[in-house]
Amino acid sequence: MTLSGRTQEQLVEEVAELHERLRDAEETLRAIREGEADALVITERQGERVYTLKSARAEENLRLLADAGAMPTESLDLTATLQSAARLAVSGFADWCVIDLSTDEGPIERVATAHADPARQALVEELKRFPPRGDEPHGPALVLRTGQAQRLEQMSPECLATAGRDPEHRRVFTALAPSSALQVPLAARGRILGVWSFYSSSSGRLYDEGDLALAEELGRRAALAIDNARLYGAAQAANLAKDQFLATLSHELRTPLTPVLAVISSLEGDDRLEAKVRDSLAMVRRNVELEARLIDDLLDLTRISRGKLELSRRPTDLRQIVEQAIETCCGQDMASGRLSIVKDLAAADQTVWADAPRLSQVFWNLLNNAIKFTPEGGTITVRSWFETDEIVVQVSDTGVGIRLEALGHIFNAFEQGDLGTARRFGGLGLGLAISKAIVELHGGRLSAESEGVDHGATFTVRLPVGRSRLEPAVSVGEERRGAPRPEAGRPLHILLAEDHIDTAEALAALLEGLGHRITVAGTVAGGLAAAAEAAAADRSVDLVISDLGLPDGSGLELMRELARLYRLTGIALSGYGMEEDVRKSRQAGFARHLTKPVTLDLLKDVIDQVRGTTT
Amino acid sequence: MAADPQAPKPMTEAEAPLDPEIELRLYVAGQTPKSMTALANLKKLCEEHLAGKYTIEVIDLLKQPQLARGDQILAIPTLVRRLPSPIRKIIGDLSNTERVLVGLDVRPRS
Cβ separation of A39 and B76 shorter than 8 Å? Predict the structure, then answer.
């Protein structure tokens, strides 16, 4: 098979460059996980945007306030809250009132007005056209600057005559006929957020010192409500930004892995290469796959924090899962004699109702942790036994152990779903939080014990056993491969839409190697043109394989059009693997949604499955 | 470990890079706490360890977010060593002087 004209040297160079990028990405991930960054750059359609992450503290404050019961608000909608506060004030205390808020760097906003007399509400609303300006020598602007409440017991005609910024403002103000006024700051946590102005008019009420104290208390309560709503808004935005950031980051990280994996797997199978070279290639592939798993962890992390991790469960042979995990994770350390592995899987001959790849992930994580934290000469023991209605699998090591104070925290990363908590977790990685979530979704439990530092650690997985006992197990190996389709083997004409040139070339070469005919397009328009041309020349496209992010639009649009025009189906290749992404690609007409990086074996299987359903 | 980290040796002439100029760029986001800390730490560290050999350019991505693209900045604060090449990046508030010096290749990796 040709490798798109690459020489060995070029390949080595590309792998070195990839290595640089991965190191960069890993460093970024680590820094974010450990809370070393407090702002993120997100690339949006309109360009780059910076999100500052005050969220950790904001959310904490929010919780503190809520717990203290200090908030008078039922609603987090700021305008609605203040409007109802204003209405409350004019049900006896004032004849009319106005609430002004200062904004970050921007002008002062007049957000709420209320009048006791519904007939005059429209008049008081007019005041919204005249919000105070920062440098005005009196009125709300002065209170905003000084934070000092003001009381004007009796507003003289002279006072009214000079009130307002211009004749129009003065006309409205005078028409409202204020006779006495209170202006109090809305202050929370040492910051002045706004001013609440109360006026009496037709009631003839003259505000005294006691009234001022009450107004100040109202001001404090309103300020808490404002602070709360703003904190909540900031926390929400930061959370959203974080999820989006993680999705974007995993996409960026996945994209370059696809061509590398594809090229390496084909090179590994090339028997013209020396065995030594192929061994090195296997090492490179293992490390790229490891990186891919890290990225998967990142995606899982966002799924778990949104409660969106889903299982596809079937009867599964637990022994096979545990044995394979031991082989995958510990094979090297056992062979080299670095660690000894003790297996006592007496009870593992058991079928469990499980998502096999997910459950494997749990044991990988536990075993990899054990290996990571156990020094040379140590022992890792894997045991299993039955307890009432439960099968227990325990992984223990003789490694560095866990500090007693830390034991309670190690699974807790997502209780608050923020970066600050993930930091506590740093040294143990993301695996434990993900594993715990997976085990719990299976109706089981995952617990950790340690006698303390240098006394090793023990992780215990408990899974329920029940009705599935009688059902035959599906072997883990078979499960991935679909049943062979009668059509498998017939060469197809595949339209490959992919704008990442390296990926397109590598995939095209590999698919051609399987005997298919490939037409490559780099854009939506190019894909449509190629399909039309092929149809006109009577060598119609059989199947579409498309990246979702194309320069002139989305692979979804391309698929939708091709499904409509030629009743085609396809396979989506995407760096994004969230449920929402999968749903959208199904809707557009893709039969399958694969998340990058994709191995040739998987792609081959999926092509066979998909064409079986369409031709 | 190759060197005793407790006794940092000043760089000798021979160990200094051929081109003595170390060009640093610090990406910040307005006045977030970590941005401010990073800037303060960087100034101090440069004065103590790189005196006379460096330039610092501070870029505020809140004001010019589009500049993030050039050095592919994702997290803030990030320090970029533009020169000597290859480019090196360090994310965080730069409070761990040892790590920063290693990251800038001023101190050998252990």
Answer: yes
- Among partner residues B33, B77, B91, which is closest to A28 by beta-carbon distance? B91
Provide the CB-side half-sphere exposure for A559 (13 A, CA): 28
Strand partners, A197: A98, A183
Which residue of chain B comes nearest to A46, CA vs CA? B66
The three-state DSSP-derived secondary structure of A216-231 is: HHHHHHHHHHHHHHHH
Q: What is the pLDDT of residue B109?
A: 56
User: How many whole angstroms separate alpha carbon A85 and alpha carbon A178?
Assistant: 20
pTM of the model: 0.37
Distances A434 to A105, A256, A425, A480 between C-alpha atoms, Å? 42, 25, 12, 22
**Is the C-alpha dihedral spanning A597, A602, A607, A609 positive or negative?**
negative
* Other Cβ atoms within 10 Å of A502 Cβ, number: 18
Considering only the beta carbons, identify the residue of B34, B65, B92 that sits closest to A50: B65
Secondary structure percentages of chain A, helix, strand, coil, to 5: 50, 20, 30
pLDDT tens digit string along B46-76?
988 888 888 899 999 988 888 888 888 878 8
**Rounded mean pLDDT of A108-125?**
92
How many angstroms separate the first and last alpha carbons of chain A? 28
> Per the CB < 8 Å rule, is B29 touching A249?
no
Strand partners, A397: A380
Q: Per the structure block, which two tokens stand in for A325?
A: 């995990």
Contact (CB<8Å) A31/B91: yes
Which one, of B75, B91, B102, lies nearest residue B5 by Cα? B102
Q: How far is CA A592 from CA A64, A491, A547, A589, A606, in A?
A: 46, 19, 12, 9, 8
Residues A579-609 have pLDDT tens digits of 777 888 888 889 888 887 777 777 888 888 8
Q: What is d(CA A174, CA A190) in angstroms, rounded to the nearest whole number?
A: 34
Partners of residue A26 in chain B, C-beta under 8 Å: none
Contact A36 B61 (CB under 8 A): no
Contact at CB, A28 and B76, closer than 8 angstroms: no
* Residue A98 confidence (pLDDT): 96
- Chain A CB contacts of B91 below 8 Å: 27-28, 31, 36-37
Query: Which range, A116-120, A234-238, A546-550, has the best average confidence (pLDDT)?
Result: A116-120
CB burial readout A262-273, b (16+ within 10 A) else e: bbbbbbbeeeee
A chain contacts of residue B33, beta-carbon cutoff 8 Å:
38
Higher per-residue pLDDT: B27 or A93: B27
Distance from CA of A65 to the nearest CA of B (A): 23
Strands annotated E in A45-190: 47-52, 96-101, 109-115, 150-152, 180-188
Residue A66: partners with Cβ closer than 8 Å, 6 or more residues away = none
What integer pLDDT is reported at residue A113 of this predicted model?
A: 94
Residues A305-341 have pLDDT tens digits of 666 677 778 888 888 889 888 887 887 788 888 888 8
Distance from the A520 Cα atom to the nearest Cα atom in chain B, whole angstroms? 29
Is B75 close to A50, i.e. CB distance below 8 A?
A: no
The beta strand positions in A164-313, using DSSP E, are 180-188, 191-200
**What's the pLDDT band for A11 if we cut at 50, 70, 90?**
low
Cross-strand bridge partners of residue B103 = none
